[in-house]
Amino acid sequence: TDPTPSLKEVFKKDFAIGTALNTQQIEEKDPGAGLLIPAQFEAVTPENIMKAALLQPEWNRYNFELADKLVAYAERHHLKVNAHTLIWHSQLPRYMYRMSSTDSVRQFLHDHITTVAGRYDGKVYSWDVVNEALNEDGTMRKSVFQQKLGDDFVVEAFRIAQQAAPHTKLYYNDYNIEQPAKRAGAIALIKKIQAAGVRIDGVGIQGHWSVDHIPFEQIEKSIQEFSSLGIEVMFTELDISVLPAPKNVVGADISQNAAYNEKINPYAGGLPDSMQNKLASGYEALFRLFLKYDKQISRITFWGVDDGQSWLNDWPVRGRTNYPLLFDRQFKPKPAFYKVIEAG
Ligand code: XIL
């Protein structure tokens, strides 16, 4: 009986609206988010459970239990799955960090992609084949894959994925690739894949931004430049932090002293109206920009359903109170939600 239209309805003609799903949500142990997911979204990305550490915890021993549950959940609720992610330097199984032989790394690249992407071909809509292969200056990140196999591991990963998953869309995904130097690196990488005659269907700009500087101008240029490569453009992990982004504190805990906490975690007691409205305006402007390019953009995915479960409460500092999404800790739509709906 709620007369407010849903995100997925409002943007149906423009692009798919998605959300990340955590384990609780996949196992339907989160009734609050459980109502919102099928009502508001038409696409889902597993936040963690399809990462290599979880799917292949020991070499050649796979655990598909949760990934299969996700696929079943998505089927029940008519949601498209963007699977995330095959090849990434982070959340790798422990043995990968100790792997010293080139042949073994090559074997892992081949077997992991073939087994996992093969199993879910026809069951998931798309894969983030390679995640975060670039440095901020556009050069290749020194991951275990890059170190052992060279820069071409990205082309190889897509080649193997194309073989294993002919019915699945294949994407490159990264953060800050809207920024000029990193964007140039991403464009070069995509062109290299295309020049090798290997299929790449789209690029995902993660979209972890901060309310004080949403890079509108670079976002617009990125949509234009990436889409001119003939591929889909997506925003795949959208959230807008309202907290300070301190440097060199990854993994730090807030409970050091009161003055530090106050500075680093200013909204523990609630979000002031001024900030609530600033977030809403930021989201509104962003969606107005996205709509200008609705032919180029195929999907916008939020990195979580509600503020209470956002990873930004624990990153880069643990234990903060952040408010980056459209639904609050009681699963109620925030002013930002209504602004986004209005824009649509
Ligand atoms: C994050 C998850 O949200 C966290 O739960 C996990 O602890 C770490 O990873 N870029 C990505 C995502 O591509 O996979 C990351 O997800 C966030 C940054």
Automatic annotation (TrEMBL):
Residues 1-343 form the GH10 domain. PROSITE patterns: GH10_1, GH10_2, PROKAR_LIPOPROTEIN. GO terms for molecular function: endo-1,4-beta-xylanase activity. Coiled coil: none annotated. It is an enzyme of class 3 (hydrolase). Keywords: Carbohydrate metabolism, Glycosidase, Hydrolase, Polysaccharide degradation, Signal, Xylan degradation. One of its GO terms (biological process) is xylan catabolic process. It holds the Pfam family Glyco_hydro_10. It comes from the Bacteria. Transmembrane segments: none annotated. The active site is at 237 (nucleophile). Its EC number is 3.2.1.8. It catalyses: Endohydrolysis of (1->4)-beta-D-xylosidic linkages in xylans. InterPro entries: GH (IPR017853), GH10 (IPR044846), GH10_AS (IPR031158), GH10_dom (IPR001000). Belongs to the glycosyl hydrolase 10 (cellulase F) family. PANTHER family: ENDO-1,4-BETA-XYLANASE A, GLYCOSYL HYDROLASE. This is Beta-xylanase. It comes from Filimonas effusa.
